[in-house]
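Example record for the data management plan.
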Amino acid sequence: MKLRITVETSEQTILFGVFLDNEDKKRNPKFGEFREFSFNKSGDIGFGKIHPDRLALVAILNTLPFCEKTLHLSWPVSNSFLESSKIISRIKITAEKGSVPPIRKTRSGRHALSFSGGADSTAALAIMPQTTESVFMLRTKRGGRTLYDSDAAEESCRQLRKLGFVVHSVESDFEYLRDPIGFPTDLAVSSPAILLAESRNFQSIAFGTILESAYGTSGSSFRNYVESSHYRLWKTLFDAVGLGYSLPVAGVSEVGTAKLCLELPIGRFHQSCIRGKWEKPCNKCWKCFRKSTLISALGGKEISEYATKALQTSKEVRKHLLDNSPIKHEGVLTYSLERANGGGEIFDCLRKLTRVGSINTDWMERWYGHSSTLIEEDYSQYTSNKLKHYLGEMTPSQTKDLLNWSNEDSKERRDILSELRILI
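Corresponding structural encoding:
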């Protein structure tokens, strides 16, 4: 049984078709027998010629979760790419027969950033070479209710262009492959940059992945990211298509990216909320709650009225706090609640839950220097120097706190959580 993928290309549009066999339909009963997803380029610069291996990588990024046994590409790819694809142990990748030479990594000095308009990707752009080209994926709007609003992100792109940055915009509907709607894989968002890589002569693609995500401190314990299956999989496949896989802020906490956005000039052109309009965040979502509390902490201010109101009225915020153990990015919340005053009895209880005063969080302000190995070699020194200058490198003691990060469930925690449920 095979999940079969086709592709049609033109200067402005790339269209993928996905055909499911019986086994795949059992895995994805809501998918149907056929779906398609596309990428549409606006502006003067088109996709140009795209190497078959790079089309294959985009196909895998967007369809891997839906495949049961075999993912078949209806076009020839290089033997070296097929060999590299064996890193995916769960399924097998096959392709039409044909002779395709592999694509080699260029030393062009041109680098791309998968840009979202939020704090993390804006911080990444701020410490990357000034010639970095940002690639923004504009999510297609279809019928039906959606909370996403691209207004703020598109305004971020416009403001950056005014400053002289090269920012590409590519519209895609690949998130509609999933039910419920969402990205098929976390790196699927880089698909537009991969498709533009040949025409723009990109050497590498960077992501705004932060320390909490890369090193696992958003969860229960630290992990060495370079030893993770996620790194081995995607680093191998990006290498196979001649593109560097770069994570310039992987050693920077959400605290650090917020500090960079406050201190560096382009930081004012970001907005993390993806539901509100430009300069008018919704102040209701989990991200707004977390970010506004962090900004209050960095400014030495009281808990904002927006955070207080969200805690009392937002089902989403309450769900994150009450149902997730540990709370997503709980360490950042600990840092914020330790430094932002006020909030009353509810926030005092939340401080107990997040171990304010019991654990050290000052390491979140600094850069984890060992992450330099995750930065594209051509600009690793440049970016490392920037991070040392603006954030400083973690001390041995702070590094130890990071490596020993642990946030496990316990009876004490459950008791405090019960208390918080009553207050909320």
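Summary line stored alongside the record: The chain has a mean pLDDT of 95.
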